[in-house]
User: What shape does this take?
Amino acid sequence: MKILIARLTLFAITTLSLSHQAAAEDCIPCHREKTPAAVRQWETSAHARAKIGCEKCHGSNHDKIVKGEAKVDMKVCGPCHQKALREHKASRHGMGLHSGWGCTRNLTNRDPGECRFCHEEGSSAPLSGVQCARFLKQTSEMGEIGCNYCHNVESSCASCHTNHNTSLAIVRDPNSCAKCHMGPDHPQWEMWQTSLHGTLNATAGISTGPTCQTCHMQQGSHNVSVGITMSSGGVPYPSKQAEPARKEMLQVCGQCHAPEFARKELARGDAVRSQSLAIVKEAEKIIWDLYDHGLLDPMPDQRPDHPLSGKKLVTDNQMLYEDTSHIERLLFKMKKYDYARTIKGAYHQNPAYTHWYGNAELKMDLVDIKAEASRLRERGKTPAAGKAGNGSASEEETLRALKSKVERGAMSEEEYAAEKKKVLERLK
Assistant: This one.
């Protein structure tokens, strides 16, 4: 009986392999002419050596394939690559769409084809409640190439591995990271390339100079978030989450460096992060004070609605760089670009990015924001306030500002009552 079962199992495996091979042979004659590069890449891949044919990944519905409806995504790759998928889902790459997407159902220029990113075919149930204001302000074309080309990393292995070539040399090259991890908001690739790590790698090779993968994909792990102690926006994690992550990163650094050296380097980065965040918070407070006094130009109720918050002021990670005031645009640059460059430059041991591209710009941003705030306050002085000897117009404006603060939760009811009492006493 055991021999019979073994023979049947062998027959099934052989039949399955032949069916995959046959499926590939059915596709290849045509695709050798139509898509020759894809065929060449597959023929030299680990998939071809394992007799994994076209149908195994793409399915057999040719019409859906042609229409682009037969996506080869994580659900296709996962059954064969379960460990990699688990690690990927645990990392920031596994939440790519969750930080860069947004439901377009209420947009007048929506592209119905975008629904596939958040819904299973034929289902109205969302896969996530993600929203991204900046994405929602873009055209469908810009959203596709400018946003989701990178953020698709959540659901598409091909984001890093390419479509048909399984060569590990591709994904072990830092250039595979560069297409997303560069630019004004997170230039990790440029930071690494021009750091001592990158220089050593270029001159002495990977045995001396680590790559992105050396530190962030230890032993081929797909969890790229190991050892990170802050959110992607640079907000420090609570100690319960940060302390284990720091131990993980010290283990990574300890493969090349003395433990105490690594600890001091990372602690210095923490200090730079804390100092830089204080500058950002100071600027943010200035802008909210202007909002409370109705001095932003234009105010949120005088410009197109924010995609998620309507007429409200937004200074968190849903800030826009368009349809906003000049001083808010300065804050966007400060938070999204210069703060990020400062702290990520520090953790990547790149002095120029930490100081000149980061810290110096951060501090000059604050100078600009303070100057613009002074201009707006000066312009906001009304003739009535100047003529009124008792300063009543100024006091009324102060009352409105206090009310705004309590309504947005920046002041408690008790604090509001006390401050209001002081203002009313001045009016007597």
Observations:
- The CA atoms of residues 90 and 223 lie 6 Å apart.
- Confidence is low (pLDDT under 50) at residues 8-22, 382-391.
- The two ends are 103 Å apart (CA to CA).
